[in-house]
Amino acid sequence: MHAPAFWWRDPGAAAALLRPAAALYGAIAASRLGGQGARAARPVICVGNPTLGGAGKTPTAIALSGLLAGMGEEPVFLSRGYGGRLQGPHVVDAGRDTSAEVGDEPLLLARSAPTVVARDRPAGAALAASLGSVVVMDDGFQNPSLSKDLSLLVIDAAVGLGNGLVFPAGPLRAPLMPQLARTGALVLIGAGRAGDALAARAGLPVLRARLEPDARALDGLGDLLAFAGIGRPQKFADTLQSLGRPAKRFVAFPDHHRYSAADAARLLDQAAAERLALVTTEKDLVRLRGDAALARLADACRALPVRLAFEAVETVRGLLAAALQRAKR
């Protein structure tokens, strides 16, 4: 879905009309947060976000996995597999599975560490525990079925919490305070007053981080036709701009968009007509692969890789080490 524009502005008439529905949704979500989940056989580190849409959870999970591996642990990712048809538990095979089967994010995660997809989180955690020493959950913060040893909430500092209201009046997945009460630290990605304001009032450790794009992926390309179907597509356009490679044409799709043959034909035709090079996100490119109808587009476009870098790496290591120690008592 495309996030409504009013979510990211001060509350107005549209948000006011939806407040009764938001109150009901928020009450249910808050009650679910209070549930006691099953304990996994291994420590569970959860990477979530308080709002709907993308904030950078997957790059954060991958960065944490790298730190855990450097600490001598054997991390295993656990994901719901949003957008995929497999119920799981299933160990992702990045060379054979497609996004239609396991979702797009698990295919990115599986490049870094063993990855399990499962609608049933405790069952998925049981399988993940057999493959490594610590489970890293990509999303699932608001799901109460599995107990977490450390939960991190990821926030895009440029937009923060938007209008601060609960869905559907705003982007929050649940009322803010019950979410913060179950959070070990905030991961604030990028810069922005919205993020700074939240950090000042959250009363939690704040781990600042940035997304670092690999500009070498654009070497040899001319003018760009960029497209993205992520939580906030404009972030991709802004990233290209920051690299001094602004897109001549930019096409935004909804988050987790399932590309059609018609989408592919339009993008290819426009690129050919204007002599533009196609560029997209890694997450979008994995959704194109494995579908014969999209093969031409997948072959024609290039992805811009990004990695997440924490500013205070030792602080993050300390939080992880403390969580592992608590879990193993």
UniProtKB/TrEMBL annotation:
> How is this protein named in the record?
Tetraacyldisaccharide 4'-kinase
HAMAP family (alphabetical): LpxK
* SUPFAM superfamilies per record: P-loop containing nucleoside triphosphate hydrolases
Per the entry, what this protein does is:
Transfers the gamma-phosphate of ATP to the 4'-position of a tetraacyldisaccharide 1-phosphate intermediate (termed DS-1-P) to form tetraacyldisaccharide 1,4'-bis-phosphate (lipid IVA).
Q: Which UniProt keywords apply?
A: ATP-binding, Kinase, Lipid A biosynthesis, Lipid biosynthesis, Lipid metabolism, Nucleotide-binding, Transferase
Binding residue positions for ATP: 51-58
Please give the start and end residues of each transmembrane region: none
Family designation? Belongs to the LpxK family.
Catalysed reaction equations from the record: a lipid A disaccharide + ATP = a lipid IVA + ADP + H(+)
EC numbers for this chain: 2.7.1.130
Q: In which pathway does it act?
A: Glycolipid biosynthesis; lipid IV(A) biosynthesis; lipid IV(A) from (3R)-3-hydroxytetradecanoyl-[acyl-carrier-protein] and UDP-N-acetyl-alpha-D-glucosamine: step 6/6
What is an example of a Pfam family matching this protein?
A: LpxK
Q: Name one GO molecular function term.
A: lipid-A 4'-kinase activity
Which EC class is this protein assigned? transferase
Superkingdom, natural source: Bacteria
An example Gene Ontology CC term for this record: plasma membrane
Output one GO BP term. lipid A biosynthetic process
